[in-house]
What we know:
Elements: E1 5-10, E2 17-22, E3 30-33, H1 34-38, H2 46-68, E4 75-87, E5 90-103, H3 109-122, H4 124-129, E6 134-141
Parallel strand pairs: 5-6
Antiparallel strand pairs: 1-2, 2-3, 4-5
Helix pairs in contact: 2-3
Amino acid sequence: MERTANAVWKGSLKDGKGVISTQSGVLKETQYSFTTRFENGVGTNPEELIAAAHAGCFTMALSAQLGNANLTPESLETTASVRFEKTDAGFTVTAIHLSTRARVPGASESAFDTAAQNAKNGCPISRLFKGNTEITLDAKLV
């Protein structure tokens, strides 16, 4: 399986603008720029897209882990927060914090915590960052 996206950029770093599109068409010429990345401009940025990818990946992995424990979630809601900082090596994603709230009928705290940790460690986006970026998790049953 292979997924693609493309980016087109025109102009200098600070004054230029770009667009990002995905193979699925969900993003189609979505604007990004220096201001959307480092300030508060209108559009997206790579770190926001990483956060979306990680939230989606983790949440699907948590659903799978709960299913392995014979539990069916009623709802799973995850927010991923990506920390993007200037380091000696340059701007770097230094940490990702996952926060999830789950409604899982019949789940014990222990079974849920095990499923959440397994999902955090096993989802492909977490594995992509393993060893390079601190990933933390706050997972709660509601």
